[in-house]
Design brief:
By secondary structure, this protein is α/β, with parallel strands linked by helices. The protein is built from 15 helices and 23 strands. The structure holds nicotinamide-adenine-dinucleotide.
């Protein structure tokens, strides 16, 4: 089927091909509340079925040539590229992405597919020295079936970031997207890969909530789980995965700092800060949560960021507004609770702090200190929380006081000094003279502390590490002889 023909997948999911499961649910627009489509929703029993299919399809898939697997990835990129507006529209309708964000996300998915095509073909082992006359090597072999659980905010790339390299390396995949973004984060991606020639059963999508995700983690035939989502869910998955001796890759929350150093250009810094906090309504793990501004620039920075926030409208993506809706009322209320608790504790609201339906106005909180909710917690909404510092040691303490450690921006006139300073910071990612939001398929992406276990996605090495096992192989011409 053409992946753009909704009528052919309406009421179904991709489980050994397009299948009805019994129960269906609706995809709903967060902007309008309108029903967009229906799809089949799965249960724990469907995880078992998906795994049966994946296990039997994986052997044949792993035995196809690396060139054939690479070709499927290249064709998937071509299919998606020629129908990019379809995925862009679903990202706008189902996720509430502004048009620019939707186009950007499709570009990221394309990069991921191109990289995965290359990953299938890079060297995958080492020749080892041996004390004996034999061939000794370490090679990477597929783990078998990879379980992928993904979130709602960048659903297509955060699914594909694991699905594409796992497949390219010869694994089968069972994917459980977020229930609020099943189409953009699951079904459309399956349709693209199907059209590209991925054999049936190699990828299966089981829509559902946390219970279906937990069943995926529990499934004994899935040795590797790739999870992107919140820190509390990550902790639960890590605990269960630990009991079952699974390899669990965790990409979790963040409360990322943007440090504006004394010698920074304050106008440029405020522009970077606004982008870092407000892009995609702040619903990004790498969103700039905490703006840490040197005391000499503080008042001007607060003024500039406030002016910018006041000028950025939130509205339905169909209007072209740069900010769309928060994904649902639960998430919106969480954002609002952080804002009101921070103001109650002494933070100064300079703009925003209000909402209409799911559209939350860009918000700036000044005079924030540790102990305020907006300093301590991940907000996941369009809220810039500004604090000040006077010395470098104080800045290091503030940055490192967060339990999270995903991304950090250092804005400065002395890039090399920031390069040295970065060594003192607990952060998986540091951008010098940029804000905190960035992702490239070829760069190893990951956080420390409550942002993850330091696992990485991105680039051949990190992806091979994530989705294969090492096998040590020795080979000699004749059977070795022994005294027994
Ligand atoms: P969430 O953890 O509630 O849900 C994410 C996914 O996990 C969904 O598919 C959900 O159904 C599933 N899930 C939830 N609980 C589960 C459980 N116990 N067992 C198995 N599956 C479970 O996350 P959310 O709040 O919807 O998403 C936002 C969070 O994701 C934020 O904290 C954000 O920072 C984080 N995130 C991290 C990255 C990263 O790369 N580090 C990227 C995007 C989002």
């Amino acid at each position: 089927m053409g992946f753009f023909e909704q009528s052919t997948w309406e009421g179904r999911t991709y489980l050994g091909g397009w299948t009805e499961l019994g129960a269906t649910t609706d995809a709903v627009s967060p902007s309008t509340g309108e029903r967009l489509a229906s799809y089949a929703v799965g249960t724990s029993a469907d995880i078992e079925t998906a795994t049966d299919l994946a296990v039997s399809a994986q052997r044949t898939w792993a035995a196809t040539s690396a060139e054939e697997r690479a070709a499927v990835m290249r064709r998937a990129a071509a299919v998606l590229e020629s129908h990019a507006p379809v995925l862009e529209r679903w990202l706008q309708d189902e996720v509430g992405s502004a048009p620019g964000k939707a186009a950007f996300e499709v570009g990221l998915v394309l990069s991921e597919l191109h990289l995965a095509a290359a990953t299938a073909l890079v060297p995958y082992g080492q020749l080892l020295r041996s004390g004996r006359p034999r061939l000794s090597l370490a090679r990477r072999v597929p783990v078998g079936v990879v379980g992928v659980i993904s979130p709602f905010n960048f659903p297509a790339i955060l699914s594909m970031r694991s699905v594409a390299p796992a497949l390219a390396l010869g694994n089968a995949v069972v994917l459980k997207p977020d229930p609020r973004t099943t189409i953009a984060g699951g079904l459309l991606l399956a349709a693209v890969l199907e059209e590209a020639g991925l054999p049936v059963g190699v990828l299966n999508v089981v829509p559902g909530g946390a219970d279906v995700g937990a069943a995926l983690v529990d499934e004994p035939r899935i040795p590797v789980i790739s999870f992107t989502g919140s820190t509390p869910a990550g902790r639960a998955i890590a605990a269960r995965g630990g009991q079952l001796l699974k390899r669990v890759h965790l990409e979790l929350g963040g409360n990322n700092a943007l440090a504006v150093l004394e010698d920074a250009d304050v106008e440029a810094a405020a522009s970077a800060g606004a982008w870092g906090s407000f892009l995609n309504q702040g619903q990004i793990c790498m969103t700039t949560g905490r703006h840490l501004v040197h005391e000499s620039l503080y008042d001007r920075y607060v003024e500039l960021l406030t002016e910018k926030a006041a000028r950025i409208p939130a509205g339905p993506p169909s209007t072209g507004a740069p900010l769309g809706p928060i994904i649902d009322a639960v998430q919106r209320d969480k954002v609002h609770s952080v804002v009101t608790r921070s103001v109650d504790a002494g933070a100064r609201l300079t703009v925003g702090g209000t909402y209409e339906a799911l559209f939350y106005q860009p918000t700036v909180l000044a005079d924030v200190v540790p102990g305020h909710a907006s300093f301590d917690e991940e907000i996941f909404g369009p809220v810039a929380s500004i604090s000040t510092f006077s010395t470098t040691d104080e800045l290091v303490r503030l940055v490192n006081s967060s339990e999270y450690g995903l991304s950090l921006g250092l804005l400065t006139g002395d890039a090399y000094a920031a390069f040295e300073l970065a060594e003192r910071m607990s952060s998986g990612i540091v951008h010098i003279n940029d804000q905190t939001v960035d992702d490239e398929a070829q760069a190893p992406f990951g956080g420390v502390g409550a942002s993850g276990t330091g696992a990485r996605f991105g680039g051949h090495d990190a992806n091979i590490e994530a989705f294969t096992d090492t096998q040590w192989v020795t080979m000699q011409g004749r059977i070795a002889t022994y005294p027994f």
